[in-house]
Write a structure and sequence with these properties.
The complex is a heterodimer of chains A (219) and B (416). By secondary structure, chain A is an alpha/beta fold. Helix content of chain A is 52%, strand content 15%. The radius of gyration of chain A is 17 Å and the shape is globular. Chain B folds into 3 domains: 4-197, no CATH class; 225-287; 294-412, Histidine kinase-like ATPase, C-terminal domain (Heat Shock Protein 90). In chain B, helix 2 crosses helix 4 (61-82), helix 3 (45-56) runs antiparallel to helix 4 and helix 4 crosses helix 6. Classes of the chains: A alpha/beta (219), B alpha+beta (416). Chain B: It holds the Pfam family HisKA_3.
């Protein structure tokens, strides 16, 4: 990772904004701007050209999905910009929309409550900045908890692996978590992709597509 | 229900508010009766003239008939109009002597009848009451009054203070009866007023029902607004602060060496704060789901379906946002139905449809399970029906043994 990651932070709650800024600084991120609504977010990104945007989805003036709208627009303008959106609740549509912006990489969708697990949150941000995709475990858990046809075809182990893929882990990390060999993980991933009818193609990130397939189904 | 009738029989009557309430009622009757007497005196003027002529023997039969008809026409024609404010006024005054609300009559003849009572029986009875109380008062003070000259009660004349003493003692005893006298008069008047002015006609009942359902609708609206406010306050206030606090605890833990005694305490505090966050989130969700508030019923229903372990297809065609209480009722009914479906139905798939049809939000929850859902067996179905009823809607259930089960909820949602 590059030595300094410049972050623009958007969160309307003053207290939480200060807390998040403190957290980011504590983990070595450099907060170049901390703003309170989507309009300011767009301006701050244009001005400061950050590496990462961390934004609340529900912000003034409408308190609906202003943050998400801004995030999607930012990604459209600059697909290389890393964006992590924080959500009050699991909303598949939000996650799908974020993943669908750009190439589906350098994006994260996390429940807002995750920020209190400061270590994990910082790790997730770093993964996104490094080009990964992070989907909240709760979103994944809900999707995989359903008896839906494509998922039903996966074995329990394959589901576990898919869950970890969705959280942005590499094969090596998955192997460590599940105490498997990396080769075994590779085999599982291959099976998952095959069962989800994702053809081999070097130009797309099939791992992301695997997650995206489900999310789009839900949206 | 406390009423004057019951209170009089109580031994503690004299030390309650009832004698004072009776006094207030009796005193307030005077201006009311006077206010009624003025217009009715004018309307009955032909009859008064007729009465005078009859008494003096100067009545010409034709004139007498004309006067009688004129009086009758005036009273019948304008009397009900003059008596118009009377039922409402008495309704308020009757609260003084009893808590049972009076459903004021709409009938002009009953109003007129009551006005007649007010200008005939009421002056007579109240005058008798006044004279009695006056008599007791004079007797009571007769030992003092005789100083200014003899006191005469018609048949008896008291000249000396010694003569007056027995009367004063008698009056003292009688004075204790005055509150009862007041209460009896007020109670009798109230009974007459109720008998004449109270109505139990179907029309009045309907009017009452309309009023009740309106007030219920207002309550439901107020209640829903209150829920929203609580949800918002909790979310913008307590929840935000709690997340901030938990975050700070998480950061504090990072800077503590594992070996330090504080590390354990901060770790515990962090864990407890996280648990509290979860509880608060559940609480807020139960009050009014934020997803529903932010994104509306269609999205919230899809979210509910997404959380059900059985695959549920949602068809929600709702182009506009519906009133708060309608959305909330529909949401909680579907949530409960889906929970029942997952727990009891044995279904392998379900459907939820929601659409607006002619001022009604129609929500249907169906499954392919074994049916046999029975509201009598307490599966939360009665609760659902109650929820629908509070929103002035209704719930229909079809669940034959062997299935399938279909729950249909209709909620009125005015286009305003």
């Amino acid at each position: 990772m590059s030595d300094r990651v410049n972050v623009v932070l958007a969160e309307d709650g003053v207290l939480l904004r200060a807390g998040l800024a403190g957290l980011l600084e504590r983990f070595g991120f450099h907060v170049v701007a901390a703003v309170g609504d989507a309009g300011e977010l767009l301006r701050a990104v244009a001005d400061r050209q950050p590496d990462l945007v961390v934004t609340d989805i529900r912000m003034p003036p409408g308190f609906h999905d202003e943050g998400l709208r801004a995030a999607v627009q930012l990604r459209r303008d600059n697909p290389a910009l890393a964006v992590v959106a924080l959500s009050q609740y699991v909303q598949h549509g939000y996650a799908a929309e974020l993943l669908g912006s750009g190439d589906g990489r350098r994006v994260g969708y996390l429940l807002k409550d995750r920020v209190v697990d400061v270590d994990d949150f910082a790790t997730a941000l770093r993964r996104v900045v490094a080009g990964g995709t992070v989907i909240d475990p709760e979103v994944v858990r809900r999707l995989l908890g359903r008896r839906q046809d494509p998922v039903a075809r996966l074995s329990p182990r394959e589901r576990e692996v898919l869950e970890l893929i969705a959280e942005g882990h590499s094969n090596a990390a998955i192997a460590r978590t599940l105490t498997l060999s990396e080769a075994a993980v590779g085999k599982h991933v291959g099976n998952i992709l095959a069962k989800l009818d994702l053809p081999p193609d070097d130009n797309t990130n099939r791992r992301v597509l695997a997650v995206l397939t489900y999310l789009r189904d839900q949206a | 229900m406390p009423t004057l009738h019951n209170a009089i029989r109580s031994r503690r009557f004299l030390i309650t508010w009832w004698p004072w309430r009776s006094l207030a009622f009796v005193l307030s009757t005077v201006p009311v009766a006077a206010a009624v007497a003025v217009p009715f005196g004018l309307l009955a003027a032909p009859w008064l003239v007729l009465l005078r002529k009859l008494l003096t023997g100067t009545a010409d039969p034709v004139v007498a008939l004309l006067l009688f008809v004129a009086g009758a026409v005036l009273l019948a024609g304008l009397g009900p109009l003059a008596a118009r404010p009377l039922p409402r006024l008495e309704r308020h005054r009757l609260r003084l002597v009893g808590d049972r609300p009076l459903v004021a009559t709409g009938s002009p003849w009953r109003r007129l009848g009551y006005a007649a009572v007010m200008v005939t029986a009421v002056p007579v009875v109240y005058s008798a009451l006044f004279v009695t109380v006056l008599l007791i008062g004079v007797c009571l003070f007769s030992p003092v009054l005789v100083d200014g000259g003899p006191v005469s009660f018609g048949v008896v004349t008291i000249v000396t203070a010694e003569q007056a003493v027995p009367y004063a003692i008698g009056a003292l005893v009688a004075a204790a009866g005055v509150p009862y006298l007041l209460a009896l008069t007020a109670a009798a008047h109230a009974a007459v007023a109720r008998a004449v002015l109270h109505t139990a006609s179907a029309e009045a009942l309907r009017a009452e029902l309309v009023e009740v359902s309106r007030s219920r609708a207002r309550l439901v609206d107020a209640f829903e607004a209150e829920r929203r406010r609580i949800e918002r306050d909790l979310h913008d206030g307590a929840q935000q602060k709690l997340v901030g606090l938990t975050l700070q605890l998480g950061l504090a833990r990072l800077d503590l060496p594992d070996s330090s005694p504080a590390a354990g305490a901060v770790t515990t505090a962090h864990r407890q704060a996280k648990e509290l966050m979860g509880e608060l989130r559940e609480l807020i969700h139960g009050i009014r789901p934020q997803l529903l508030t932010d994104l509306g019923l269609a999205v919230a229903l899809r979210d509910l379906a997404g959380q059900t372990p059985i695959p549920v297809r949602v068809t929600a065609d709702l182009p506009r946002r519906l009133p708060d209480h309608v959305e909330a009722t529909a949401y909680f009914v579907v949530a409960e139905s889906l929970a029942n479906m997952a727990k009891h139905s044995g279904a392998t798939s379900g459907t939820v449809t929601a659409s607006e049809q002619a001022g009604l939000l129609v929500v249907e929850v169906g499954d392919d399970g074994h049916g046999g859902a029975d509201p009598a067996r307490g599966t939360g179905l009665t609760g659902l029906a109650d929820r629908a009823a509070v929103a002035e809607g209704r719930m229909l259930l079809a669940s034959p043994p062997g299935g399938p089960t279909l729950i249909r909820v209709e909620l009125p949602c005015p286009t305003a």
